[in-house]
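Researcher: First entry.
Model:
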Amino acid sequence: MHIVVNIIITIVAYFLGSIPTSVWISRAFYKIDIREYGSGNAGATNTFRVLGTKAGIIVFIVDILKGFIAVNLIHLTKYYIPHSGNYINIQLLLGIAAMLGHIFPIYVGFRGGKGVATLFGVICAISFYPTLMMGGIFLTTLVITRYVSLSSMISGFSFPILIIVVFEETTPSLVIFSLIMAVLMLFTHQKNIERLLRKEEKKANLPKLKKKNRNFCP
């Protein structure tokens, strides 16, 4: 029975991750396929670039929620001790299924995004405080460099360091997952790395603080 339930929630996690947020929004409200514009990626970053801030924020939040909710499907089971090794293993399985769904979505021809936002939701559900620190690293790097891709890679590389060194995590599956995640960042951002080396990567348009005009009387 346990195996059957695990298989069912894993399949549900995949279908949940497969929800192609950016593609559906671009088709429904902009009459285009986001994958045919910009970087050709069906993720939040390309949505910000092509469709603007409002659409980008919606895609970013929904993609995070896909990973977060997928991991929390484990609460449909009643036979795992929270935070035990087996509990974390199933959480990781659900998270990986959601990420595969995002990268290879069944609804739109298996052409999805890179899974960064969904991955953020996954690790947030599993390790909240390391993820919170990762978010801080991402935002700091983004403000300094204005490169979303570089910020994503640096924050991704920080995860295993935070997990292993700072929080002294000993669950083997979580440690291995954090290391694999860091390596995958290199593969999923290969084109971005090439553009960064050629100095062709586009910077994010961050909102600027408006200075108030003050009229001083002589």
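Researcher: Second entry.
Model:
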Amino acid sequence: MPSEHATAASATPALVDIGANLTHESFAQDLGAVLERAAGAGVAQLMVTGADRDSSQRACALAAAHPGRLYATAGVHPHHAAGYGPSARDALVELAAHPQVVAVGECGLDYFRDFSPRPAQRAAFLAQLEIAVAARKPVFLHQRDAHADFVAILEDYAPRLVGGVAHCFTGGPAELERYLALGLAVGVTGWVCDDRRGSALRAAVPRIPADRLMIETDAPYLLPRDLVPPPKSRRNEPAYLAHVARAVAALRGERFEDLAASTTRNAQRLFGLAAVTDS
């Protein structure tokens, strides 16, 4: 259990995890306990990420079952873009109309894995940006090793979008500046805690404007590498969000409490989440 790492709710400001894959099979047996641990660690609200039609539908249902606590995104991740078609589009349009679905995505481009052909990725990305424009909802964005194409596509859509977040940002200052110019918010995960591969991100984090910064776990992925003692399970979960927030605050030279308050306000504003108060 992550209790060694989770700060007691009484001492932790209300946090918002803008990206947790709670429909992942690793949470199937103990999701209730996961949510309890998150609440005990000060995580007041979570956005459940939709990565394809099925997981988006389940994320929406999960959010409906926990109103005011869980919210959902609905989209098709670039890994699944080859399967994007009229039925997926119709499902996403329907989901985007639900009040508990607060963003379209996870959508974007991933040229690192190339699990779907790049033309299919671009087509699915464009289609989902159109859905976001029509629904007047922000976009929840994924990009890996596809920065140039990603920015070129977004430059065409930015004037029509109501906003978006670069989910799980891992780039450096140069990429950050392009995303900020597009009007995007920036989501930071436990990647920032990894001294093997997080140097570019750590250089960028102090440059993120306070009103554009958000925090997320991307659970069950990206377990912070510097947890002490190391947890027995390699599964990441939302209870570790405070650990990420403290790491980000330290890099920015901010008080943890101030960082927590500003990132929560940012999530509320962009995604229209209900107001939360400190636990």
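Model: Note on the second entry: The chain has one domain: 2-271.
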